[in-house]
Amino acid sequence: MWKQALAVAATVRLSPVRRQLSISAAVNYDLLHSVDENFREVCKIAPSPKKVTPPLPYSIVKGALERSDGQVLRREYGDEEISISVMRRALAIPSRSGDTKDGADDLGHDFINELFLHVSVSRPMRSNSLLFLCGLYPDAVGIHSVCLLSKLTPGLYQGRVFLELDQKLRDQFCLYLEERSVDERLFPFFQSWLYQKDHHNLMNWFSNISKFINDIKPT
């Protein structure tokens, strides 16, 4: 009788634990199922275009798609190496009263896509390099700042604010970049590149989430 009573008591004490494990397994299963469904939906959306080709003479840096940041394009210009990285920024600019355009949203905002470029100009055997921060648009490139970076002296004076420079000097900097093929022709490439990279990152995110829940170590 005592053995039977102890067995029943043990069963009662373990039931909440078993119930919790059962609920946890069910939650994990439902989450994995949902992640898998979303992953399959993303797989159906093929990046367009499938092959992104930069304008000549630029080439895509090997492994750029897999990295979270860093250089995307590279080219040589004489003894210089030009490398470009990109990021996206969406600016919401309030529309003027009564100024409506086709496709304007209900909030009264015109959404302008602006891409930001970091353009690095370096030379072999030189410890410093020129770094341009530029805004890239479908029809233009605008320089926001110009810095002279040094590996040996990180605190090197960076110069004046670009808009405070003489107009002629600003124009010459623009021509300097144009001569190195940093112009609006890069815009369609980077638009496609960022779309493809977003798709690539999202697929990896779903895959890594699934592995984590399944307790599978990443390869």
Commentary on this structure:
- The chain has helices spanning 2-44, 167-179, 186-213, and strands spanning 59-60, 73-77, 80-94, 109-122, 128-137, 140-150.
- With 219 residues, the chain is an alpha+beta fold.
- The protein has a domain at 59-95 and 104-200: Mitochondrial Matrix Protein, Chain A, CATH 3.10.280.10.
- The chain is elongated and about 70 Å long.
- The termini are far apart.
- Helix 1 (2-44) packs antiparallel against helix 3 (186-213).
- A hairpin with a 2-residue loop joins strand 5 (128-137) and strand 6.
- A 6-stranded antiparallel β-sheet has the order 1-2-3-4-5-6.
Distance between the termini: 55 Å
- Largest sheet, order of strands side by side? 1-2-3-4-5-6
Summing up helix and strand content along with how strands pair, one would put the structural category as: alpha+beta
Q: What is the averaged pLDDT score?
A: 75
Radius of gyration: 27 Å
InterPro entries: MAM33, MAM33_sf
Organism: Canna indica (Indian-shot)
Protein name: Mitochondrial glycoprotein
SSE blueprint:
Layout: H1 2-44, E1 59-60, E2 73-77, E3 80-94, E4 109-122, E5 128-137, E6 140-150, H2 167-179, H3 186-213
Antiparallel strand pairs: 1-2, 2-3, 3-4, 4-5, 5-6
Helix pairs in contact: 1-3
